[in-house]
Design brief:
The structure holds two protein chains of two kinds.
Chain A (H helix, E strand, L loop, with lengths): L4 E10 L4 E7 L14 E5 L8 H10 L4 H20 L2 E11 L5 E3 L2 E5 L5 H4 L13 H11 L7 E4 L5 E6 L1 H13 L6 E4 L6 H15 L5 E8 L5 H15 L9 E6 L3 H15 L3 E4 L5 H17 L8
Parallel strand pairs in A: 8-10, 10-11, 11-12
Antiparallel strand pairs in A: 1-2, 1-4, 2-3, 4-5, 4-6, 7-9
Helix pairs in contact in A: 1-2, 4-6, 5-9, 6-7, 7-8
Chain B lengths: L5 H4 L6 E4 L4 H14 L2 E5 L7 E3 L4 E5 L2 H7 L8 E4 L3 H15 L5 E4 L6 H13 L3 E3 L5 E4 L4 E4 L6 H4 L2 E8 L2 H13 L4 E6 L10 H9 L6 E6 L5 H12 L5 E5 L25 H12 L19 E4 L5 H11 L16 E5 L1 H6 L15 H11 L17 E3 L4 E3 L2 E2 H7 L2 H10 L6 H15 L6 H11 L4 H10 L8 H13 L13 H24 L24 H12 L5 H16 L10 H18 L5 H30 L24
Parallel strand pairs in B: 1-2, 1-5, 2-4, 5-6, 6-7, 10-11, 10-12, 12-13, 13-14
Antiparallel strand pairs in B: 3-4, 8-9, 8-11, 16-17, 17-18
Helix pairs in contact in B: 4-5, 8-9, 9-10, 15-16, 16-21, 16-23, 16-24, 17-18, 17-24, 18-24, 19-23, 19-24, 20-22, 21-23, 22-23, 23-24
Classes of the chains: A alpha/beta, B alpha/beta.
Chain lengths: 317, 690
């Protein structure tokens, strides 16, 4: 549509103000990062009181918005805020608004991200468009399993590797471990975070999904977390051992297993896993929490890298 | 009133109230926190008002809501710290209620709950800021003040004192687990913890790094601040800007994780660990810290010339370099470490069995033997001491078997060719292999086993198992049905007592010095065990008499047939004993049962010398076979117990077939039926309408 002006707007939550902010620029159609600071304005919005037309108008005026556009654009921004806050979004961006010759703003491209933790967006009963995503069956099954309960994490992100199968605990630890595996040649299959003290059934199911999809082709199984605060090691490791026993027959060869963990009821947990690995006859090394997770991950990565260089008939006993 | 120093966040004397205190997580953490800190005054949970949380030596009251809690607690016992464990949907309501009812008495709210929406987080921030209440979280693990021995939340897990020792390092971490993990690493290098703070890593961190650093600045005991940082948010940028402005005097040691999310669209474990623009990626944060610190990133072995001292601190590139960096920093700054000990971090395997793979690894990947630290070493030893026999792991067994295999050419029993067994071994040998998974360790064991099978074949037509076979024959059944009838007539008091005998002997000898049951040097031990058991039996018998309850008898002693002489023997047991004597083999379990029978008479547990019956003999023979395997944890206790009854059942089923053949040839159909005239009606006849 023909337009004399374009406007960029976004509403997001901002870590500097710990509140929503409205960002505005008259340089619509551009990536916000590439708009110079002098040509954009951000304004924290009171999350209780919301955005009013007066505030929006002031902001537009400060940017040098043509006067006839200020009033209709302000009203559009108030509507945008109302939509944002009533539908449980954590970000919405209109880029650009095009302003018609009769000063009517038209949102020409719109992007929003709903906050999964906010129930409001579920009330809308929107049929969201399905974007063509290359999501694996594994990722899909784990995502479905993850949302079934809020007890314990069941978070994975596919990495496409073919080396280490990582069963990891802790949001921070899992990030560091995957980084270390990548640096040491471990070629991790996915990123995982299974902390949050999952009960037995939850952990059994989570481990089962990992093993069902990934065990057959893994180079090394790595079960690793820091020193847990509340996750019970006996419960989680027994669940992993039981899932492993179920899916181990899917492998034609033994799989080296590297373990590192600390936390409540550690010894019964480590011994349960050891028992399972002895039964399977798989080679294993188990570390306690006195060995840093990064060293364990480095060792697992190097082991996996070395095994990948062996001919397939020499990888096992 | 907002906190001015770290101790304002948490110190001894604070009174904590817990929301949703009866929840799975909250109840467990409350119990441990109360043991560690004793700072919880109570909690509330919807619909659970009036209840109690049981603790080791006391209870904590549960109220229906926060207002109810305030109403019932005395003014001096009302909480100044609140910890929120409610489900995500309830968090906002809980915080609003606290703010509304607290009227200035609450200083800090800790939100443990994960998956709180960002809108609610922003509202809580706004609401609490206006009331001068600090909020830690959401999704914080909590805070620990080590010197004061108090914590809020689950920092330190079940045993906070194991990880957290008083010291000079304050840990501020985006990851709850890393608070614990880093404190553990630091202690190994001689540094204790002052405060451990889990900030939470939701998109909005309601007490940002800048504010926490300001509190640490005003804490006189914090000498160094260790930071664990993830991508997402501009918290570090703001903190560094502020540190530069005020000339922050305390050194920091920082580790930034999450570079994997810089180059790809990847969802990390924490909701707020998301790259969302300039300054929020891991690499951006590294650059921000490097610019502030003014020294290159730390690597072990690094030295610092006098004009380039790391006065502002260091950034490490590997998590395991954190303690070394803190140590270097203290040396450079000429500060004393908190503790004298120093154990460098290393690969220290606790348990390992790399099997054949271990022999083929290059030297760099071969690990030496590790050292399991206390108390885990003792716990593992204790487990092995008290755990007798093999602990098995469950697995899918539908189409799998250890006991047998057949590749189409060779049937195998536990991997050994059945054909070879047929050609070279006895039935006794094969049976030991089939039931224990291992061939007999001594040649005479197969003979002993076969002799027990003969002994158990039959004990006359009057035994109830033989009667069962005859009844089945009389009814016109096939031989295998009669064998099943025989088996169905074996129970705890007929044939099955061997299981109890094995259990009794395992209880007496498990984890003792007895490893080889055929070693005659164990005689003294056996005598002592028989004596100990007798003394215990006597005590139990007297206690049972005092309480007028039945005394639980020793299994497999006495027999209804062999009981009338001064010294009684089951002749079948005697054959086995004589056989052992003839080959000069001592048998600890036979000896034990004989000594037990005599000792019981001598001590007055019984007036008779009881015969060691055939069930005991079978139990002794098979336990002798199983014992070395049990000691080596290669056989489960459950299997050893069950083998005793299986041995009797196997032989007696064959004996039942013998009774069947005899009865089927010579008996009349239905001849086991008892005529009506011989049956006794014990109930009176009653009219139909009653």
């Amino acid at each position: 549509m023909p337009a004399a002006n374009e406007v960029y707007t976004a509403i997001t939550y901002d870590s500097r103000y710990l509140s929503p902010i409205l960002t505005l620029s008259l340089r619509g159609g551009m990536d916000v990062e590439s708009i110079p600071d002098s040509e954009k304005r951000s304004f924290p919005v009171d999350v209780y009181q919301g955005l009013d037309a007066y505030q929006a108008g002031e902001l537009l005026e400060a940017l040098g918005c043509p006067r006839p556009v200020i009033s209709p654009m302000s009203r559009a921004l108030v509507n945008l805020w109302d939509m944002f806050i009533t539908s449980g979004m954590k970000m919405c961006e209109v880029n650009p608004w095009r302003i018609s010759e009769d000063h009517r703003p038209v949102a020409c491209d719109f992007k929003a991200v709903f906050d999964e933790a906010n129930f409001k967006h579920r009330n809308l009963e929107l049929e969201l468009p399905e974007y063509p995503e290359n999501v694996s069956e594994f990722q899909e099954e784990m995502d479905r399993w993850n949302v079934k309960s809020y007890q314990g994490q069941a978070h994975v992100s596919e990495l496409g590797g073919s080396g280490v199968l990582p069963i990891l605990f802790g949001g921070g630890a899992s990030t560091i471990i995957i980084e270390t595996l990548m640096q040491s040649g471990g070629d991790p299959m996915f990123l995982s975070d299974f902390g949050g003290n999952p009960p037995y059934d939850r952990m059994r199911g989570t481990a089962g999904i990992c093993f069902k999809h990934k065990l057959a082709k893994a180079g090394v199984l790595l079960i690793l977390g820091g020193k847990a605060n509340n996750t019970r090691i006996d419960v989680t490791f027994q669940a992993i051992a039981d899932a492993l026993a179920e899916y181990a027959p899917r492998r034609s060869t033994e799989l080296p297993v590297i373990v590192g963990r600390g936390g409540p009821r550690l010894v019964p947990g480590l011994l349960a896993l050891q028992r399972c690995l002895e039964e399977l006859g798989w080679p294993y090394t188990i570390f306690g929490h006195d060995t840093p997770i990064t060293m364990v991950a480095q060792y697992a990565g190097q082991l996996c890298k070395y095994l990948a260089t062996l001919p397939s008939d020499r990888k096992t006993a | 009133m907002h906190a001015k120093s770290l101790t304002d966040l948490l110190c001894r004397g604070d009174r904590v109230a817990v929301s949703n205190i009866t929840g799975r997580e909250a109840a467990k953490v409350t119990e441990i926190s109360q043991r560690y800190a004793a700072n919880i005054v109570g909690g509330w949970a919807l619909g659970r008002g009036g209840g109690e949380i049981p603790l080791e030596q006391s209870t904590l009251p549960v109220f229906s809501d926060y207002a109810d809690l305030l109403e019932h607690l005395p003014p001096e016992g009302r909480p100044n710290k609140i910890i929120i464990y409610s489900p995500p949907e309830a968090v906002y309501g809980e915080v609003k209620n606290v703010v509304k009812a607290a009227s200035g008495s609450v200083q800090t709210i800790f939100i443990i709950t994960e998956h709180v929406s960002i809108e609610v987080s922003a509202k809580i921030h706004k609401l609490c800021s206006s009331e001068q209440i600090d909020v830690i979280g959401g999704n914080t693990l909590g805070v620990i003040n080590v010197a004061d021995h108090v914590r809020i939340g689950a920092v330190g897990g079940d045993a906070p004192e194991e990880t957290f020792h008083p010291g000079s390092a304050t840990i501020i971490s985006n990851s709850g687990n890393m608070v614990n993990t880093i404190a553990s690493y630091l202690y190994g290098a001689g540094f204790g913890t002052r405060f451990g703070i889990s900030t939470g890593k939701d998109q909005l961190i309601l007490t940002p790094l800048r504010d926490l650093l300001e509190l640490a600045l005003h804490d006189e005991f914090t000498q160094v601040i260790v930071l664990y940082v993830e991508p997402g948010g501009l918290y570090e940028q703001m903190a560094v800007q502020w540190m530069q402005e005020v000339g922050f005097p305390k050194p920091i040691v920082v580790y930034v994780g999450g570079t994997i999310a810089d180059d790809r669209h990847l969802s990390l474990g924490h909701a707020g660990a998301v790259v969302e623009g300039a300054g929020t990626s891991a690499r951006d944060k590294m650059a921000i810290f490097d610019a502030y610190l003014g020294v290159p990133p730390f690597t072990p072995g690094m030295t610092f010339p006098p004009d380039c001292r790391p006065n502002r601190g260091l950034r490490v590139q590997a998590l395991h370099d954190l303690p070394e960096a803190v140590r270097v920093l203290y040396d450079v700054l000429e500060r004393e470490r908190d503790y004298r000990h120093y154990s460098p971090l290393r690969l220290n395997p606790w348990l390992k069995n790399m099997g054949k793979l271990g022999t083929r690894l290059p030297p760099a990947l071969v690990l030496g033997e590790g050292t399991i630290p206390s108390p885990y070493k003792e716990q593992i030893e204790q487990f092995h001491r008290t755990q007798f026999g093999r602990m098995t792991a469950r697995r899918e067994m539908r189409n799998a078997s250890h006991a047998s295999s057949n590749d189409g050419a060779t049937p195998r029993i536990y991997g050994r060719s059945a054909l070879h067994l047929m050609e070279t071994r006895s039935f006794g040998h094969a049976l030991v292999l089939s039931w224990t998974g291992h061939p007999p360790a001594k040649p005479f064991e197969a003979d002993l086993v076969e002799k027990t099978l003969i002994a158990a074949l039959s004990n006359g037509p009057g035994t109830i198992s033989a009667q069962a076979a005859k009844l089945s024959a009389s009814a016109g059944n096939s031989p295998h049905t009669a064998m099943i009838a025989t088996l169905a007539a074996i129970g705890d008091v007929h044939g099955g007592n061997g299981r109890e005998a094995v259990a009794l002997m395992i209880d007496s000898f498990a984890n003792s010095a007895l490893v080889d049951p055929y070693d005659a040097s164990c005689k003294d031990l056996v005598a002592q065990k028989a004596h100990d058991l007798t003394a215990d039996l006597l005590r139990r018998k007297r206690a049972a008499a005092e309480q007028d309850v039945a005394f639980q008898r020793v299994p497999c002693l006495g027999h209804p047939v062999y009981r009338n002489d001064e010294v009684n023997y089951d002749p079948r047991e005697q054959v086995l004993t004589r056989f052992l004597e003839s080959i000069s083999v001592y048998h600890a379990f036979f000896d034990f049962y004989h000594q037990l029978a005599f000792a019981m008479r001598h001590a007055g547990v019984t007036r008779n010398v009881l015969a060691v019956n055939v069930d005991a003999a079978i139990a002794c023979v098979w336990l002798g076979v199983c014992w070395p395997l049990l000691c080596a944890k290669r056989l489960s206790v459950e299997r050893a117990k069950n083998i005793a009854i299986a041995a009797f059942a196997l032989a007696r089923a064959a004996g039942g077939a013998g009774e069947y053949f005899d009865h089927a040839d010579f008996g009349q159909p239905m001849d086991m039926r008892i005529p009506v005239s011989e049956c006794v009606a014990l109930s009176p006849d009653l009219p139909d309408d009653e």
